[in-house]
Write a structure and sequence with these properties.
Alpha-Beta Plaits; 2 domains; two-stranded antiparallel ribbon; 5 helices; about 20% strand
Length: about 150
């Protein structure tokens, strides 16, 4: 399985990973509309952690033994057996937030407007996640895991 890796040594904290992720998951295809005119506002599935001088992008790691899946009370979180991607079924999610407590990376976000959770989906349907494509310093790398499954 491919996943996103972060090279903190070259991350400059520009937040373009957040910007393009938010745009990818918004109704609008125009960046201004996505940020200024869309209601409800789409959330980025990644977030930037800044502890200067270090910065790094945090997202779902699609863990092999993902603790969020059994923690989900409604069965809204599941792993695709072919791709290995852990995804959210928004129809089943009731916003209980137990998956947030279980995630060791703090990678699942609350969408309080919708009463659901959102998380990285590795930009399903795209050849490469938009955060990786738009990272100006190539601090984000999309590559195969060493053993074929996420850690």
């Amino acid at each position: 399985m491919k996943r996103v890796y972060v090279n903190e040594e070259v991350c400059i904290g520009c937040r373009l990973c957040e910007v393009y992720c938010r745009l990818k998951h918004s109704e609008a295809t125009d960046i201004i509309k996505a940020f200024r005119r869309e209601t409800p506002v789409a959330l980025s599935r990644v977030r930037l952690e800044e502890k200067r001088p270090q910065c790094f992008s945090v997202r779902c790691q699609h863990c092999h033994d993902a603790p969020c899946i059994p923690a989900c009370l409604t069965g809204a979180l599941r792993r695709d057996p072919e791709s290995g991607v852990v995804s959210v079924d928004e129809e089943k999610c009731n916003g209980c937030w137990t998956c947030l407590l279980a995630c060791p990376f703090g990678a699942i976000r609350q969408d309080t407007n919708q009463g659901k959770v959102v998380k990285c989906d590795l930009c399903a349907g795209e050849e490469m996640p938009v955060c990786v494509v738009n990272c100006p310093n190539e601090a984000l790398v999309y590559a195969e895991t060493g053993n074929g499954v996420a850690a």
